[in-house]
Amino acid sequence: MTVDLSKEPAAPATAPGDLVFDVRNVTLRFGGVTSLNDVTLQMRRGEILAIIGPNGAGKTSLFNCLTGVYTPQEGDILLSGRVGEEQSPIVGLRGLIAKKRRSLKTHVINHMGVARTYQNIRLFPALTALENVKIAIETRQKSGPVSAMLGLPWQRREERESTERAYDLLQFVGLTRRANELAGSLAYGEQRRLEIARALGTNPGVILLDEPAAGTNPVEKRELAELIRKINEEDNVSVLLIEHDMKLVMSVAHRIVVLNFGGKIAEGSPDQIQKDPVVIAAYLGTTTEEAAEVIAEGPLVEEIDLSTSVLDDTSIEELIDETAENPQDGDLA
Amino acid sequence: MSHLKRETALQVHLKRLGSCLALGVVMAMMIGKHTGSQNDYGLGFRESVLKPRIFLFLAAGVVVYLLITFWPKVAPYLSRPGVRPLAMGALTVMAGYSLLRWSDTPQLPDTKLGPLAAAARGVGELDGFTRAFFGSIVPGSYWLLFLIVFVLGGAALILRNRALGWVVAVLAVAVGVWGLSAQLALRSFLKVPDHSTGGYVQLLGYLAIAGSAAVMAYTHAESADTRGFINRVFNWRPGFPLVVLGSLTGLIALLGAGWFAPLSLNAKWWDMTNVFGSEAISALTSAYLGWLVWVLFLGTATLAAVATARRNRSLGWAAAGAGILSVLVTLVTIHDFSKVAAAKAFDGATGPWQNVGVGPWALAGAFTLLAGAGWMVASRPTVKEIIEDAADSDAIAAGTSLNVTRALLVAVIAGALFYPPTATGFWQTVLVSEIGIYVLLAIGLNVVVGWAGLLDLGFIAFYAIGSYTTAFLTGTLPVKPPSFLHLPPLAAIPFAIAICLVAGIALGTPTLRLRGDYLAIMTLGFGEIIRIALNNDVKFGFYEKVLTNGPKGAFGIPHPHIKVGPLELTWGQNSLQYWYLLLVLVVLILLAFRRLENSRLGRAWAAVREDEVAAQATGINTVRTKLLAFAIGASTSGVAGVFFASQIGYINPANFVLNNSILVVAYVVFGGMGSLPGAMAGAAALTWLPEFLKDQVPAEDRQMWIGLIILLMMIFRPQGLIPARRRAIELEGLDKPKSPTPIAVPASEGM
């Protein structure tokens, strides 16, 4: 079921045709398993788009298609990473000798303005936090090995610039005091934020966050929600978010796309998705009718209140459990 | 029923004891004479296992077994103050007793302590005291004395018995002095010019033992804190250890070492004015040999000492300047008097710098150390600045390690500059054509293996390419270069770099998509292809001319020659000249690579090595990054090739076998992957070792001992001699988060 997009409340005002990603009928198979099945979705410039769905729904596969790790067998993906850039297809026929259907290389897509983080953190653990961010910044620099070996002035200037920018970014995510510690020795939530800082270091137009809240505590989740907002509003970076934590999703997302078994089952604003029986049914594993009854009992998820500090850590699964067990106790908000 | 059989404690111990005894038997077969003949295959076995000495080895096995079993109880004793110096001293004494020569007399084939003592103890002309040391009363008495000192010292340290400690200290000094006096007595009896060092080295060892016992008797500490002690010394007065070392070296140079030492003479400093008094030496040299040297030495030492004590920056610079000036004056003097000696063709000398003793070079080294001490004082913050920065504890901690590193750097520079001239011709050759060249190769391979994390087993191919490029450009291959490209060897360096860059890229482009083992196999194949192509004299069907001269290789590659204006440098057969050329090359490459390591490319290499997927997603072009590592490593190897070809003069494909590639990898791993000083130290240590072992073990056993050392290294210190910070962290697994990652997974994770 697709929800009318015009009612969406929080979406930023952008030109209607200004899409970051335009995913058209993408199908990805691994042998006999269809990971993505005819998925079509559009991501607008400047929005926070969340992709949710049960485990194995194909969320990370979609990320991997968008970043060039996998080449989908069918469909097109058009990318316009930064403002004012033409839409260009990232899947096409490539190859020197034999033309094969192939995605652009991951690093090329990254240079087109797409940065990402990983579900299981992939930092460079034996390097310091500062070095991790510098590596990202320096992929946009020009100086080569010879100027580095000779210590030429422009190379030194670039080095200084990258250090300054790295400190700025660490400050942005609140890790300035950890700058010279090894990335691997940081606390889990700090590693998550460092990964975001590294992604921002490449100066992206769109950032793909793969379960940034996994394994973090409530306080860290709240910081994360603020951070995602800040990235979106202050840096004007579009955010594509995979997340299981419904409170986080409902608090920050402008729009939500729901995947199940590789196919898109719903799309709409957070409110609409919460009330969508198809979505609830997919999560609860019940029929749509039963799900509709659950919805009728009241709102399922409270949003993170970004104005207060402490939050209770009731996750959506507990909420759903409680709702399913005691349909009478509807007042969860 | 469980399929796993739990071993009983008895079984475990039996197994362990069995392994230790087996180890003892293996050691017995490794040590000693055991080369059989065609008709007698059993000789080695009989010699090693069926003689009573096997019990010594079995006893050693039992000791190892006891050590392993009771290690937790033993370990606390080993951290007591003084245990390490005791062990070092004991090793030094053993080396002095068993490895070093005690005389240079031509009358005996072997002048190590054992045979020498056996010959000397019956000589009636020697006094009884000396003969007693050599074993006239009890055979092998010096070993007995050593054993007594060592056991008593160990007992004193373990029991923490102060009185025994003082006794051991006095006893150790006495035994050491007895040994040296015995050597000196023998030397004056033999009346042969003598440069042997056995007596001095064993005295050093005994002094270390005495020091360890004295430290124990004096200190109240429960356990040794060596690192803390070193850091305190270096923090207290940066440069202080260098001042001490420099002053001691200078005093030994002036008061003990020979200054002019052709075979028939060993003139000390105070003999110099007599030897050269009547000759036409310059005023400066004559003043230097008379009084100037003391003025320079005492002046520089005082300046450096005061600068260190006051931590005064301008005094530090003054000491550095005085030290460097003194080094220059010393060099001028050496040149001057050795030229006078050469003019008289003294002892076959053909030019300056020959027949010079250890003394002047050691003095130049001492001046370098003192200048380095001054530099350390001048370049470190003063006390006032430290107090101002006191809040910044990170800066102080960084300063400590910097102090130690800089002191070591100064010592290495002094050694690299002034040790080689004092070495024998054999060691000079080893320094250049083994140690030096492999250090250069290891620096290059470190880029590929250490920084970019790519295993390259065909590295020697680039070395071959560099060598053959030189041969081609100097016109010594059958295929001649166009006349405008006919170059002297040193001008071939840029061409060799360029060609190796291209070769590196040509090899890398198709292969760098492969990972790990597959890449290693490809590079191995590449190395063999290059060698076999050179060996088979690459001929294409349409081109019938001889290109590379096949297995015969290239002959008569000219030696390097530089002529810039009035400056003219010619390199000949002398290894020493090449040492300094090599030093210049290594220093230039090191300076460049040190910058590279901390540049954007260096960090990109680290990123690719740690997590290639994440590196790609961060925008790093991984193929290009790896290609650059290949190309830069290859070009370093090319420089080494040019140097090798022009030094040795003839090359053939047999110089570039697979074994050499594997050795270079071993050097880098042994030294510490990813660390420039480590790779250099690894190459230096492992190329020095076989040459050193030449005198100590049968030739065919050498590789076995080296293998043993590498094996022990990989078991006990897998990160290498001088590990790189990043690599050490990767190896220790510190990069893994300390607790299993998601400590409390929210229930929502399961969705």
Topology:
The complex is a heterodimer of chains A (about 325) and B (about 750).
Chain A: E1 19-30, E2 33-44, E3 48-52, H1 59-66, E4 74-79, E5 88-89, E6 91-94, E7 100-103, H2 106-111, E8 114-116, H3 129-138, H4 145-150, H5 153-173, H6 188-201, E9 206-210, H7 218-234, E10 238-242, H8 246-252, E11 255-260, E12 263-268, H9 270-274, H10 277-284, H11 288-296, H12 316-325
Chain B: H1 9-30, H2 43-49, H3 54-69, H4 71-78, H5 83-98, H6 113-120, H7 128-134, H8 141-159, H9 162-190, H10 198-218, H11 226-236, H12 240-255, E1 258-260, E2 267-268, H13 269-276, H14 283-310, H15 313-343, H16 358-379, H17 383-388, H18 393-418, H19 425-451, H20 460-473, H21 492-511, H22 516-535, E3 561-564, E4 567-570, H23 575-597, H24 600-610, H25 612-617, H26 622-648, H27 658-671, H28 676-693, H29 702-716, H30 725-732
Task: Quickly describe the structure.
The complex is a heterodimer of chains A (333) and B (751). Chain A is an alpha/beta fold.
Question: Which structural traits does this protein have?
Answer:
heterodimer, A: 333 residues, alpha/beta, 12 strands, 21% strand, globular, disordered N terminus, B: 751 residues, mainly alpha, two-stranded antiparallel sheet, 30 helices, 67% helix
Structural description of this entry:
The complex is a heterodimer of chains A (333) and B (751). In chain A, 36% of the residues lie in helices and 21% in strands. Chain A has twelve helices and twelve strands. A six-stranded mixed β-sheet of chain A has the order 8-9-10-3-11-12, with helices on both faces. A four-stranded antiparallel β-sheet of chain A has the order 2-1-4-5, with helices on one face. A two-stranded antiparallel ribbon of chain A has the order 6-7. Chain A starts with 18 loop residues before the first strand and ends in an 8-residue tail after the last helix. With 751 residues, chain B is mainly alpha-helical. In chain B, a hairpin with a 6-residue loop joins β1 and β2. In chain B, α12 packs antiparallel against α14, α12 runs antiparallel to α16 and α14 runs parallel beside α16. The longest helix of chain B has 31 residues. The C terminus of chain B is likely disordered. The chains are: A alpha/beta (333), B mainly alpha (751).
